[in-house]
């Protein structure tokens, strides 16, 4: 069984005490720091940009896992690479308005791990054309944009299918879940094949 990675979301932090909050989750045993980037267009909420990622990078050596919930991700990837991201995940949905192959290559060329994200309503088949081009699959277990939503257990079918694909592939991807993760849903996610939990 693969090591389970815990990635607390910076979105839950008190931004007036960002350094302290990062040190707190580090001390608690976090493996990564998850950074949710929202532009108010692709999702109906706005969070923060590369500057906060840069500040987080100054405070920790933990990998920074950047999730771009934005339109035209390709325009912003270089800024997040420069800010210190270790992995950058982009959306596969057409509403994200970018050339997926090109963006994934751009992320890898920047020295980061590349990820693809599936919203709850997006079929997993949409990632098939890109299977050799990314390193992580992020399955949203809530609709992205706002916290506090209940975990969608129906998304475990995607996790199971991705885990099955991993069995037959030399290039194995991390399977990340994000949304409504607690002790109970973490266990369900791991049992179905996820190995990265955004909390």
By secondary-structure content and strand pairing, the structural class works out as alpha/beta
Order of helices and strands: EHEHEHEHEEHEHE
In the CATH hierarchy, the architecture is Alpha-Beta Barrel
Mean pLDDT: 97
Shape by Cα distribution: globular
Can you identify the CATH superfamily? Aldolase class I
Task: Give the count of structural domains.
Answer: 1
Q: Which range does the strand content fall in?
A: 15-25%
> How is the main sheet built?
8 strands, parallel
Beta-strand segment tally: 8
Q: Which residue ranges are poorly predicted, with pLDDT under 50 across at least 5 consecutive positions?
A: none
Q: From the 3D structure, determine the CATH topology.
A: TIM Barrel
Q: What value does the Rg take, in angstroms?
A: 15 Å
What is the CATH level 1 assignment?
Alpha Beta
Count the helices. How many? 6
Strand order of the largest sheet: 1-8-7-6-5-4-3-2
Description:
The radius of gyration is 15 Å and the shape is globular. The protein starts with a strand and ends with a strand. The protein has an 8-stranded parallel β-sheet. The longest helix has 12 residues, at 156-167. With 199 residues, it is of the alpha/beta class. Helix 3 (73-83) packs parallel to helix 4 (100-109). 32% of the residues lie in helices and 20% in strands. The model has no long low-confidence stretch (mean pLDDT 97). It has 6 helices and 8 strands.
Topology diagram in text:
Blueprint: E1 5-7, H1 18-27, E2 33-38, H2 50-59, E3 64-69, H3 73-83, E4 87-91, H4 100-109, E5 113-118, E6 136-140, H5 156-167, E7 174-178, H6 183-192, E8 196-198
Parallel strand pairs: 1-8, 2-3, 3-4, 4-5, 5-6, 6-7, 7-8
């Amino acid at each position: 069984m693969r090591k389970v990675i815990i990635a607390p979301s910076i979105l839950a932090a008190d931004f007036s005490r960002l350094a302290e909050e990062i040190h707190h989750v580090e001390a608690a045993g976090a493996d990564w720091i998850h950074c949710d980037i929202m532009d108010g267009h692709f999702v109906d909420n706005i969070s923060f940009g590369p500057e906060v990622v840069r500040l987080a990078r100054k405070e920790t050596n933990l990998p920074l896992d950047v999730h771009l919930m934005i339109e035209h991700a390709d325009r912003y990837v270089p800024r997040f690479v420069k800010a210190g991201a270790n992995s950058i995940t982009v959306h596969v949905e057409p509403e994200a308005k970018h050339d997926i192959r090109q963006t994934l290559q751009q992320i890898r060329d920047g020295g980061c791990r590349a990820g693809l994200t599936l919203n709850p309503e997006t079929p997993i088949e949409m990632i098939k054309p890109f299977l050799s081009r990314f390193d992580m699959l992020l399955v949203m277990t809530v609709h992205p944009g706002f916290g506090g939503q209940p975990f969608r257990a129906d998304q475990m079918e995607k996790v199971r299918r991705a885990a099955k694909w991993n069995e037959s592939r030399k290039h194995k991807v991390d399977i990340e879940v994000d949304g409504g993760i607690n002790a109970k849903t973490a266990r369900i996610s791991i049992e179905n094949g996820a190995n990265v939990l955004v909390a």
